[in-house]
Amino acid sequence: MDLQAVLVFLDSGLLDLSWWQVLLAALLFTHITIAAVTIFLHRCQAHRALELHAIPSHFFRFWLWLTTGMVTKEWAAVHRKHHAKCETADDPHSPYAHGIRTVLFKGAELYRGEAANAETVRKYGHGTPDDWIERNLYSKHSALGIWLMLVINVLLFGAIGITVFAVQMIWIPVTAAGIINGLGHWWGYRNFDCADGSTNISPWGILIGGEELHNNHHSYATSAKLSNKWYEFDIGWMYIRILQMLGLAKVKKVAPRARLVAARPRVDLEALQAVIHHRYDVMAAYAKSLRAACAEEAARVRRAGLGESHAQAHLLDSARRWLHIDATRWNDQHRAKLSDVLAASDAVRKLVEMRAELEALWERSTASREQLLAHLQQWCARAEASGVRGLQEMSVRLRSYAPAAA
User: Fold this and answer.
1) Every domain of the chain and the residues it spans
2) Which residue from 6, 92, 278, 350 could staple onto 258, CB 3.0 to 4.6 Å apart?
3) C-alpha 166, offset from chain centre
């Protein structure tokens, strides 16, 4: 092959694609990588939310070896530790522990550092593939696949294949290690007030395979489906459903959907069971009531126009932005304002105090069903007699929860 032939080959590669076709190929490659991470590494391996047939399982392992060099056992271990130690100093990549800038821009370094921790891998890496090809190729020569991918890209696309390779190499560090682990615990909306700082970045989980719905995932970590509301879309779930229809996947668990019926006169054992089962839905509804009460009470105080009404109204307005979240996530500034907020409104005070009492329902692990039922019945009776509309509405809702339909 003479020099001119080499230059022609480097210009076009085997496929001789136009620039926009190369761009589409690069986006396709990165999307397959995202699908492999969310379906295989995350939902199948780390959380056991589904089982995969050998065909897609081996394909995903091979593709991830080519495009990321990540070892399944290490990835699952780091992610499981993240859930076990979420938002603490032991969390491998919490923006609350490491800072949002560090997680956004150095997320891949945080991952590599934790993946090299033998104790993390030993404690959290159980149940991942341990066959011959894993031991002798994927884990033993994890970097080899990346260099093979570089060669493949150059052969297919020519010199621009190096750019395609660069895009592939930064895609997971930017989207997964940076955006999901960073922004997914820092900015966005929340359907469920779980104990960590997880958020849904977008209701349409497409670019990052559905992982954008991160608050939904942390609330129901073992669910194979990450979307929860009617307006949310999880493209990873769409792929799983396609694999399921082809007989290549078996879904083990999805997040429970709350079912409400006509309110009972009193809470019974069925309602108690459903309330405990759907505790995230219960607390999400409670959070809405608390936010509404803050707004209503601020307006009432302004209309009264007495004494320090303007300052009290402003305090209640500001409380609307944080008082509804789990008390464990209040910062020092929030706690310093708490007594003034509660003093400004008796209704808000009752809502805050009775929220803590309601949360105790699923923290009393040693109580009998009869004791828990009595606790919830007493709570509803006090809520209805409180004169606070938000508490009265919550009592009706609690009496309306029902077990999932058969």
Assistant:
1) 3-251, 269-402
2) 278
3) 28
